[in-house]
Amino acid sequence: MPNDIIILGIFVADTSYRADRQPRMGETILGNKFTLGPGGKGSNQAVAAAKSGGNVGIITKLGKDAFADMALGIWSDAGVTSLATQHDESYTGAAYIFVEESTGNNAIIVAPGIAATISSDDVQKHTADIATAKVFVTQLEQPIDAAMTGLQLARAAGVKTILNPAPVAEISDKMLSLCDYVTPNETEAEGLTGITVSTPQDAERAAKAILSRGAGAAIITLGENGALYHDGIDTLHVPAITAGPVIETTGAGDAFNGGFATALSQGMPALSAVKFANAAAAISVTRPGTAPAMPDRAEIDALVKIDANHAK
Known about the structure:
11 helices, globular
């Protein structure tokens, strides 16, 4: 059965360390907590989309090791269809995540392993999967050529396209012109436009600059300030929703993108989809971890309803 959402991305095993601060070069410090769990933006977004009610498949490459077993297990539990291939010439990716205890802010190093070899040819093997979807999502943790091919195949088939331009990289206007929606955070928006984004007004200027390069719409996620949507006609600042104390922000952007993809795939208008995604992100930051923090559909719907009632 075809998947409504196809996500191209990578899986990595997250090794997460909580401490009062990062060590300086040459220094060893004691941490407060360690966890091992599933990560990678593509994988996180697939889990977020599935848990929020989407019918999602993930295209990626894994090794043949314990971390690959972790990936397949988390996808199965969340209801994600694996379109991954497994290889023995390299390892499944891993990530170092430092979480600052007092704020929940994070810094990350990703070693993608075999996923760094995802090629245009690998993506083309999934042409039929992409063409029969409603929404295609990619990020930039795998090679840009592969992402470009996925966007081209989706656009040719009339599939809605979402580019989450993370991590920051140089992106051509040609690539942006293939994107119905581009979803950077403040740092990524600055990387795309040269505009420092600190406020919703800054975000609107950056969004307009992204559209001037060919994108259909820009959604700039602003952390505690919510998100800014602009499509050349409508502009909406969606304030952040409070779902509880912030524990960790690591997976917030992935929760947003996964929720947004689900909402679009189920026919929600873009502005409603942004509000749905904002609620998904708000819940995710009240929990530690990345994929394990993704909320389910009932939780998101309940928070959207509460927020709508407050807005009346």
